[in-house]
Every structure is written in structure tokens, then in C-alpha cells.
Input
Amino acid sequence: MRELPDAAATMRNREPILAVLRDYFAGRTRVLEIGSGTGQHAVHFAAAMPWLQWQTSDLRENHPGIRAWIGASALPNVLPPLVLDVNRPGDWPTEKYDAVFSANTLHIMGWPEVQALFAKLPAVLADDATVAIYGPFNVDGRFTSPSNAAFDAQLRAGAAHRGIRDLEAVDALARAAGLQRVADVEMPANNRCLVWRFTKVR
Output
């Protein structure tokens, strides 16, 4: 059996994130997770919210780990990962989802990739869909803690295109995509969970 990949941060943040998703995904049915990583979030949230069909996705190189977690969970409501590179229009699914979730992705992507993600979201969102994104964010152009400043420096030292994003800049992209922010939930370890509701332009 393939060894299951383990992201330590997932164990620390999954319950606080789940508490938010239980509220905002309560009336949802189909979730597209962008950047499923190891797959640990997918199986944990799908097990706790069995009314959701959870569609995983990530770059192809991360699929073996995601598939391993899905196989070990034996959950019927978690789907095998889609290949999804936000820069490649042909990768995006043609189905519509009434929820989208992504965790710890925006600071790994370059800013043009973040822009591409929000620009493409309307094509996969059903009317009145909910979008939830978890991770560290700057507020009013400033780090919210010394640890986030250190983390940002570490990210940029490893790859210059990475870094903690400004909440206001991300929210501007969301508004341009037809998303209205409905929640900004402060989370442990100086993270946030941002939630938007999509209204299709008629």
C-alpha cells in the first residue's frame, strides 16, 4: 500500500476550517476543491459533511497522494482528482459547482495565477455559489503578526513569485468576478477564512 502523505498543518487547521465550512456549505451539494495538496482536507471534510460531493483537483504530480488518501478513506462522496493548473484554460472543468474551497494556495501561486483563478471562477460557479479560501492574508497592506512576516520572507526566499497576499487586493479580484464577501473569519495561527457568495450577472 502506498504510504499516505502527511501535511502537518492539515492536522492543526482542519477542525477550525471545518467549523466555518459547516456553516457556509450547509446548503451546498457539489464542491470543487482547488489545490487539494495531500488530499487530507478532502477526506476529512467529506467525512464530516456527507451531503457534499467533494471534487478534488491539483497539478498532476500531486495526484498519487490524493488518490491514496481517497482510497484509504473509502468515502463514496470524494471524487478522484482532476488535473487543474489555473493558468491552463483547458484544465478547468465544464461542470458547475455550488461551492469552491481552497486552502493555503494563494501564497504559493504567483500573483498572475491568483488573478487567473478568480477570472476563471465564474465559469464553474452555479448561481448563488459559495467560495471559501483559507490561508494567511495581509490586512491594509500590513502583516498581521511577526510570524506571518517571517513566513512571507521564507516564501520569497524560496521562490520570488510567492508571498502572502493582501486581503483587499484579493477581494477586489473577487468582486470583479461577481463575488460578494460575506465573511472574514479569523483563524488560529494568524490565518483567515474568507467566504464569498456568487451572483451571476444576468
